[in-house]
Amino acid sequence: MGAFDDIESPRSPTIYSSMLGRGLGEARRRIVLICLIAFFLILTLVAFRRQDTIKDVVSKGLHRTTDATAPVATSDTKTDLKEDVSKPDPPKSEKTQTKPSTPPTSMKGPMLGNGERSLAPESLQDIHNSSLGFGKVFVLNVPARSDKLDAMKLTSSLTGFDFDIIEGINGKDVPKKALSGVWKESPGQGGIIGCWRGHMEFAGEVARRQLATAIVMEDDADWDVSFRSQLEYIALGSQTLLNTPKDTVPDSPYGDGWDLIWLGHCASQPDDGDNRRFVMKNDPTVTPLRHRTNYGGTPDMSPYDNSTRIMYFSKGSTCTYSYALSLHGARKMLKWLSMDIYSGPIDFGLHDMCSKKERGFKCLGVFPQIIADHKPAGAGNKDTDIGNGGDQIRKKGFSYNIVHSTRMNADVLTDGQMDKVTSQWPDETPNLKGPIITEFTNDLHPNTDDKMP
Ligand SMILES: *[C@@H]1O[C@H](CO)[C@@H](O)[C@H](O)[C@H]1NC(C)=O
Ligand SMILES: *[C@@H]1O[C@H](CO)[C@@H](O)[C@H](O)[C@H]1NC(C)=O
């Protein structure tokens, strides 16, 4: 009360009477104006509802097969992509209880070669569940960094998956006695120890909860808006590489018998002398050549064109933005990198396990990576949880290696404006027509002269 009492309410009778007091011409003009405004409003609404254009840009053949006789799932692709960024499937009860008798006909997965292999409907359905077809999704976050968690909550919600939080810890708070083996000096490497500890917590949770599989993401991870479609291809790839018998449905949609699948990294190498490759050609989500940022060895991509992604048996990667573990893999990690003597960065440790293959550790890699790190707009020193990441102010955020970044498109995705999704490198993102073509090869540089007629 008080200060505002004198202000005339807009509904005050004096205003109404003064409007009525104006001439008839004025009223007509007003009606015309109102009609015009209403007309433009309707036009705008209609335009907003046309959200399908981007699916042609982004999906371009995701979900289509190479088999010319197979139905080309144009409209299905649209439905599936919408799913990529909206709602998760409702939780499903135990797989053993409810084998879906008739899979949804709209769900068509990727196919290997000319129909040599495709995902079972059960696998496909699991990949679309709220834990991305893994037992659980975990996000690694230092509790004080609520800003990173907020962003992760938004983007995971847009992609339609749910996660559990693993609380990271600053390395300084890890007592020396809790370190693996014998550290010669005072570690003095807060970041390295904190990071090692966080990832050990992940392996620990997988083991403790007896999860058959789980995936972890660091809290600055980013992925393409067609993440789920990519995961279908990853699943087909790992089932293919693991030589899953065609008439069986593996327990995990990503196949059985692997220990680690390294999806988000900053460099990755295939096993020496192992030429087995799952090849995905014509993929619009492959990082343009000039924008591939890696800090270490990468696979020989010379046999392929610029829009090809591959999967392979891997001797390891660098950076741990995201990877999946099987229960078997998690147990080995606890033994190898905590109970045994290990004192180094976590990615080096996992790399060691992948390359030495002691105790039969089996790793799969993907290149270019489908998960990478995001650098948000704002103060540069936000990038890292320890120390100072830099004094500069970043006007615009960016993500390494991700074409249609979910973070960069979070605002348009929130409004369901799929037609406004943009590539980070619009000039170098090829306008691909036609399906993604998959193939399994065991020979990097085949001599075409040897081909039988
Ligand atoms: C998703 O599918 C995986 C693989 O079958 C399963 O382990 C997991 O429990 C499922 N998640 C949910 C939320 O149903
Ligand atoms: C691949 O990308 C490079 C670098 O952008 C370019 O020079 C080359 O022509 C591209 N190759 C094809 C086949 O488009």
From TrEMBL:
Bias kind Basic and acidic residues: ranges: 77-97
Keyword terms, alphabetized: Glycosyltransferase, Membrane, Transferase, Transmembrane, Transmembrane helix
Transmembrane segment boundaries: 31-48
Family: Belongs to the glycosyltransferase 25 family.
Disordered, as annotated region: 68-118, 423-453
Keyword Transmembrane helix set for record: yes
Stored PANTHER family: GLYCOSYLTRANSFERASE 25 FAMILY MEMBER, PROCOLLAGEN-LYSINE,2-OXOGLUTARATE 5-DIOXYGENASE/GLYCOSYLTRANSFERASE 25 FAMILY MEMBER
Species of provenance: Lepraria finkii
InterPro entries: Collagen_mod_GT25, Glyco_trans_25
The name this protein goes by in its record: Glycosyltransferase family 25 protein
Low complexity biased stretches: 98-110
